[in-house]
Amino acid sequence: MKYHAIDPKLYALNRERFIKKMKPNSIAIFHAHPTLPENGDAIYHEKPNSDVVWLSGIIQEKTMVVLYPGNPDKKYREVLVILRPNETLEIWYGHKHTREEASKISCIQTVIYLDQLDALLQAWIHHAETIYLDTNENDRLDTSLPRLDLTYVHQLMKQFPLHRYERGAVLMKELRAIKSKYEVAVMQQAVDITHKALLRVCKFIKPGVFEHEIEAEITHDFLRNRATRHAYGCIIASGDRARTLHYVENNQECKSGELILMDFGAEYGNYCADLTRTIPVNGKFTKRQKEIYDACLAVHLHAKKILKPGITWLQITASAEIEMNKQLLKIGLLTKEDIKNETEDNRACRRYFYHGLGHHLGIDVHDIGTRNTPIKEGMVFTIEPGIYVEKEKIGIRIENNYWVSKSGCIDLFKGMPITTDEIEKAMKK
């Protein structure tokens, strides 16, 4: 792995938190998916099951975590399951964890090989009354695609039809949404790497460079600072392309007078950062560009101010939309009549701000968590309002990451250039 070793207390604490939520005499089984074929004998880059990673820190296909706190045999109350190393396959595909290595990473003392599991698991399940099984219940999941997680669920339910089954995802959604200090320390590393990359490209960007050259500079800085990879598809959108929310082609020339919207984040230690900045290609905002940018920033700061425990994300979004109306009225994009005729479900600002205000952030860039229940201390959110003006061929979005504290929130990107003056200063060669 590229990143420095993660404190195994992170994973031990996560397991402890999950176990406390389990019903008496229950067993929880977390099952990672295998590698998937691409073309020929190539395989897709491994993106492990996030819940397995959250519990163990192990990045390897077919890894499993079994939690059975009521097991009469104490050594099997926490079990990590990994592939048995194969010397021949390792010649082709590289090293697989030994039991000793996997134990050190995960802080799980009992590590067994996958080919040993069936003989042990049957006895454990026969003794247990309830089985927690893991499924992907991220609200953004495309459920039309084949579900490897459900394949294992159906297999186990067919084998043990008379047990009570519980959804591990319900507990995971609650637990993973609240980050421990150990998790935030890793996220801060991802944020710091992302911060460095932004400062690098601010000096690099000038009229005539291509979007993919900027992406290359970011990638270079990520890798040299030990990031695993981009946390998501890097968006480098100059000019009118900034109005395409998930623009990833990154193949056009950046021209003087245009703005360039950059949405990128590093993944470090399996945790994500998520940053968006919109900057002038030539290093200087026009008066109108600054007007729109400052309006967007005002909404960002408004949402930041009210982000605290007790309020729901939906309430923050509603308040931010009202503030966006005020700002768009101030810069001439809305009229009083527009605002008067809006409905609660269709605010006037949605003409120019047509995506969500932000999302949970963690192991997944769009991490699991609810939006309609009160926010709790320890949650991490992005705040990313945007203003997109077709007539003026302008798209502006401003995004930072915030860790919720007792009385408010902590900006993980504190010190990052965010005002127009700070951005122009950062771009001076």
Question: Overall mean pLDDT score?
Answer: 95
Low-confidence segments, ≥5 residues, pLDDT <50? none
The CATH architecture designation of the largest domain is Alpha-Beta Complex
Put simply, the count of helices is 13
Q: What is the number of beta strands?
A: 17
The chain-level structural class is alpha+beta
Radius of gyration, taken over Cα atoms and rounded to an integer in Å:
24 Å
Strand content: 15-25%
Q: Helicity, in percent?
A: 25-40%
- Provide the CATH superfamily of the largest domain: Creatinase/methionine aminopeptidase superfamily
Instruction: Briefly note the CATH topology name of the largest domain.
Output: Creatine Amidinohydrolase
Largest sheet: 6 strands, mixed
Oligomeric category: single chain
What general outline do the C-alpha atoms trace? Answer: globular
Q: What order do the strands of the largest sheet run in, or round the barrel if closed?
A: 4-3-2-1-5-6
- CATH classification, class level of the largest domain: Alpha Beta
- The figure for the number of domains is 2
| Through-space gap between termini | 35 Å
In words, what does this structure look like?
- It is built from 13 helices and 17 strands.
- It has 429 residues and is of the alpha+beta class.
- It has 2 domains: 9-177, 3-Layer(aba) Sandwich (Creatine Amidinohydrolase, Chain A, domain 1), CATH 3.40.350.10; 181-427, Creatine Amidinohydrolase (Alpha-Beta Complex), CATH 3.90.230.10.
- Strand 5, helix 6 (148-159) and strand 6 form a beta-alpha-beta unit.
- The longest helix is centred in the middle third of the chain and has 24 residues, at 181-204.
- The mean pLDDT is 95.
